Amino acid sequence: MRTDDDFVAHVADRLAALPGVVAVSLGGSRAQGTHGPDSDWDFALYYRDNFDAAGLRAVGWPGEVSDIGAWGGVFNGGAWLTIDGRAVDVHYRDLTVIENELAEAEQGRFRWEPLAFHLAGIPSYLVVGELAVSRVLRGELPKPAFPDAMRTVAPPIWRRQADLGLRYARASYAPRGRVTETAGALATAAMQTAHAILAARGEWVTNEKRLLERAGLREMDTIITRLSPDSNVLAEQIDAARHILETAGA
Question: Any idea which UniProt keywords this protein has (predicted)?
Fold first, then answer.
């Protein structure tokens, strides 16, 4: 079996050789040194304007390969593969799109998009943040800093979304004893607030796996575990959560 370094080089070479690919990076925990022995491997292939997923399928690695656009939005597609017995994610990244998102972020503009496995969804500047924290393996890629404008603009937007969700839960879910709906609202608001805190710090977020830890919001676990169908309990815990989230990162 290949060593980790040989494995990375092997995958990077195969991806870089695909038609239209101009750069390949390693991201996620493997690039940042926070991985465990069972962590998967996150590769991104960068192209400009056009890439045909048929080329990746033709390599023959077992797994699922999506077409461009299948995942929607800026996070526009990729593959879940098994290579040399290792779990590998490959993400498609269009450099033209990313350059536009970087220009928008530098002006303090972004949008929110839903994405599987992300409670709060993702900001459109996520694909820019990937460049900042990834390790370039083949080709050349920019390494942008967190825009000053985004540090000012993003936090209140994220916090307003969190506040609206909790207000709705207080008015609609708590009186009806809706535990599941309340738990979902609390979890989503916690993630949104965490985005706000990290944006204010100028720290990139590329997924939600360690988001609450990084933002110092693990206390929300206690709130969630206290929920019960009692409407008074739900109201009390929503109020407690609002206090935690409104004061966090202040």
Answer: Transferase
